[in-house]
Amino acid sequence: MSDWLLSRRVLPWLVTLATFLLWEGLVHAFSIQSFILPPPSLVASTLAAQWEPIFEHSLQTLMTTLVGLALAVGFGVGLGLAVGASERVYSGLYPLLVAFNSIPKVALVPILVIWFGIGTVPAILTAFLISFFPIVVNIATGLATVEPELNDLMRSLGANRLTVLQKVGLPRTLPYFFAALKVAVTLAFVGSVISETVAANAGVGYMMMVAGSRFEVPLVFAGLVVVGAMGIVLYQIFEWLERRLTFWAARG
Amino acid sequence: MNEGFIELDQATLCYARSETPAVVDISLSVPSGGCVALVGPSGCGKSSVLRLIAGLETVTGGEVRVGGVEAGSARGSVGVAFQKSTMLDWRTVLDNVLLPLEVVAGRAGFRVHRREYRERALALLERLGLGEYAHRYPWEMSGGMQQRASLCRALIHEPDLLLLDEPFAALDAFTREDLWGLVQSIWRERRPTTVLVTHDLREAVYLADTVYVFSKGPGRIVHREDIDLPRPRTVEGTFDPAFVEYVQRLRGHIVQVREADTDKAAVDKESAHV
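The joint structure predicted for all components is written out below.
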């Protein structure tokens, strides 16, 4: 077996499996009760037994997260371009942006609930609010670090700003965008699940909250596993896209 | 007297954030189809003069005219190459070379002439020895090849004005001499008015009709040397006594400039002590 195959295809599964085995072993070795820490085998059987409600809640969370992420991408790219292209927008907005990003987003959920009521909208907005910042920063960085020679070259040819953006700025920023997207997608899950935990009537977060209050701890863990799995899948999809679209940034 | 294609009349440039001007009272004239070289120690403002001619900077005082109009007002017919090849890594070499045509012809114009442009680009790449690299990516090539591609990009739209800012500085001596020959032969064919910034005096004498020597802080022209050597010039010719004499003479002027600079720095230091 080649080294590449080992590290790329086999190792991730091996390490994950080993972690679960260790977990299982520890629970049995110390006879930990399942309402404190359920063994992975029990989490798995809970997943299998209650797959229907879990699936529905997961779908809700996935939808919420993706809508929030889509908003974050639209808003983040737009604002990132403005911040990266203009020194003035940068100096004007940066303090506000940094301050906003320092606010724990969970603290905003009650406000969002007052504004929009309990349900999907606060979860979407929390996912959006928590995930747009890295996109803004990375797009702005990508745009602001374009080699000055490239700008000179385009300007000497008589290109206007839009053409420069189209031919140089955007393609060059693409690797930065994907780097941000991979951070943002995991953050978006954090946002939607947190919001669902605080105030919702559907979604994995809501399901875990209800299960927790009934001491159905294996179901809580099943929720965590599902969120983690969805995170991995989305991350992989974006990584695949990244490899296809920005292969040139890795230089062979 | 006939007006040259490039006319600088007492051009002065002050960058916004600097107290001392980058260049002062630069007056020079380049006839249409001519080739001049600007030489001098680093930081003497020779690149600033190039930026003025390209229309990337606007003069603080004096005047810069290119083709009878104010520099920068008639763009699109300028080819530039820098010390860094500044290839777009996401485009193939061919698409990199086509970039100026995309910009100058516009989206619609480019589409109409696509086939013709591609053929033109392929022929030029072939000429500069990059034929088999047309569909590869820039980062798959060596620095010397990237620089060739950069030259192709500067020449593809057959500009009237060719601006070269130390394009060979980062290359090994043999590649550099190859490229001198290539640039000379293309220049003799198409005769773009050419300005070359360099710190390599052999390069300046090889390529230019006239060499201007710059002093430092602020940049001024201290010497003008007309190079009266037959063309085409060859690498072997750079060892002829006449060629060597030009190089030595220019070198003498640069040494003077550098000494003056060191003296000035010493005086400044002394007065700072007092």
